[in-house]
Write a structure and sequence with these properties.
mainly beta; 104 residues; two-stranded antiparallel sheet
Amino acid sequence: MWNTPSTTQLDSIPRLYATESIPLAEKLVHLHFFIGGCDWYIVEYDGEDLFFGYTILNGDIVNAEWGYISFSELQSIKIGFVEIDCDLHWEVVPAKQVPLINCY
């Protein structure tokens, strides 16, 4: 994985279920991973290996969905010599401000 999130970044993400009472549109997106036409937007973390967030695979926004994402599986994604990347310039924003996320 290119640009693996720091411990500080990971520790700043709310724990799983901590934002359960917050509407999807208002959940804060803390990290963005990407490769090719695939994007993962992270809003919660269990502190070990499991994220909760929004996934878009191969640019398919019709079938994109909220769900659980394994950090170790993300770290292992590689296409040829290209590895998944964590967006270094990502700023924490509510999900409703990310154009590709369907919050409804």
